[in-house]
Specification:
This is Tetratricopeptide repeat protein. The chain is built from 28 helices and no strands. With about 475 residues, the chain is mainly α. The chain has a domain of about 90 residues. Helix 8 packs parallel to helix 11. The termini are far apart.
Length: about 475
């Protein structure tokens, strides 16, 4: 019997050819993996444009747009992607964005035929072509900045702003964006220079006032911060953009009721699918005692953005810090403070949950504890603290008792003084055995199995403790 042999594509064009067949059949989702394979073999612009189109047709519009954004950021010859963005927004019936992206494409290519098409399609009238072109450039710069910024690519977002024409960089909107990026990078001097200039030009600039208040908060200028926070609470935004900005910042600064008064009407009116908005609303609801609404809003956010931690997770973890960790950090016993820092290191989302006030307290700890902090958060390689930490991790997997963990730090310090920095698993297991046998029946064999040790290695560690009175 003759069997039909199906040959697999051998190059990018072969995969793209299959994708085009799927596209002609309107099987856009099926075409996507073939285009992705083609792109992995050859980064042709046509493949990316086809991929973006298929993503949009398959209902994955945001992914399609972000595919084009990524190419704009990474390629030098990117004009065609703005044409494609204009086409996408035309198809999804967003005429304003379609026109602005299209006009930017025209500026890059001087394609007057497409300019005529834009004017005819969208029935645009204006008094100054130069002014509308500037608005197009400003809009595009803002959108690409927001894409990079929202994906944590802060350095790239600043570079993108700095690559714009000087007259665009000097716009107050752009300077505010750059100041915000500097704030996130803790470049406070650069941020302050921009914000001082903006507020000198217009002391009612809500964006600059928001950013300046955040600057004062982050730099611990408490008296000035409280003054500016009062100013923020008294502001009356004149448009939705200002309401959004002020509401987001007030939520971050724990002014939940004032934030909710600004953001909730905006959400109800526009039903925006915006991660920042839903994040703030969920935290506002939770702080105002509306936990059901908070959870529902968080679920909406999770449907398209894997944000974390949730308001409830922040609340529960904060209570754990207050009840279990802070007493250890305030202890007179240095080893207890080390255990407190270790417990802090084991928290999920610790970078997001640790408050500025707690960081201030951590900065007041002694040099030894600060070294351990650097080991935990900055990956500083420290042999002795690594030995202590590895033992704590092993014990944490079996029992999270504070007394047990402090006992290990005591023993580990004694081992370090004896230059006995080997067999951390055996010595941690021996510590566990000695701790557990005080209150429960535990055999050496069972303990060895728990820590995946031979009985001989565990017994040897126990003997070393006994011989050295550890």
């Amino acid at each position: 019997m003759n069997e039909k042999i199906v040959s697999l594509p051998v190059d990018a064009d072969g995969y793209a050819h299959i994708a085009q067949k799927k596209i002609r059949q309107q099987l856009y989702q099926d075409a996507i993996p073939y285009l992705e394979k083609a792109i992995s073999l050859n980064s042709k612009q046509d493949y990316y444009i086809a991929l973006a189109t298929c993503l949009v047709k398959a209902g994955r519009t945001e992914e399609g747009i972000h595919t084009l954004f990524e190419r704009i950021v990474n390629e030098e010859d990117f004009a065609v992607y703005f044409y494609q963005l204009s086409q996408i927004y035309t198809e999804i019936r967003d005429p304003n964005k379609a026109f602005l992206y299209g006009l930017y494409y025209v500026q890059l290519t001087d394609d007057q035929d497409y300019f005529d098409t834009l004017k005819k399609t969208f029935e645009v009238t204006y008094t100054s072509q130069t002014a509308v072109e500037a608005e197009s450039t400003l809009y595009v710069a803002q959108q690409l900045f927001q894409y990079l910024f929202s994906h944590g690519r802060i350095d790239e977002s600043i570079d993108w702003l700095s690559s714009q024409p000087v007259h665009i960089q000097e716009r107050k909107e752009m300077r505010n964006l750059k100041a915000m990026a500097y704030l996130f990078m803790s470049k406070y001097q650069e941020a302050e220079a921009l914000l001082d200039q903006l507020l000198a030009e217009d002391e009612t600039d809500i964006h600059a006032l928001c950013h300046y208040t955040l600057l004062l908060y982050n730099t611990h200028q408490h008296e000035k911060f409280n003054h500016y926070l009062q100013r923020l609470n008294k502001l009356h935004p004149i448009n939705e953009d200002e309401s959004f900005k002020l509401g987001i910042v007030l939520s971050f600064l724990k002014q939940y009721e004032a934030s909710q008064q600004l953001l909730l009407p905006l959400y109800k009116k526009r039903n925006l699918r915006n991660a920042q908005l839903l994040h703030a609303l969920s935290f506002n609801y939770f702080a105002l005692g509306q936990e059901k609404e908070s959870e529902e809003t968080w679920r909406k956010l999770q449907s398209f953005s894997k944000a974390a931690p949730s308001p409830k997770e922040v609340h529960d973890t904060s209570r754990f810090i207050e009840k279990d960790i802070l007493p250890l950090l305030h202890s007179d016993d240095r080893h207890a403070r080390i255990v407190g820092l270790f417990k802090l290191s084991q928290l999920p989302y610790k970078e997001a949950i640790i408050s500025k006030e707690l960081w201030d307290q951590l900065e007041q700890l002694g040099d030894y504890e600060k070294l351990y902090l650097s080991y935990i958060f900055n990956d500083l390689h420290l042999v002795k603290l690594d030995y202590i930490h590895q033992g704590l991790v092993l014990l944490w997997q079996h029992d999270q008792s504070t007394e047990l963990l402090i006992s290990w730090v005591d023993k580990a310090q004694a081992l370090i003084e004896l230059n006995e920095l080997k067999e951390v698993t055996a010595y941690a297991a021996a510590c566990y055995y000695l701790y557990m046998k005080r209150t429960a029946a535990i055999s050496i064999q069972h303990c060895a199995e728990l820590f995946q040790l031979t009985r001989y290695r565990l017994t040897k560690a126990l003997d070393f403790y006994k011989q050295n009175s550890i």
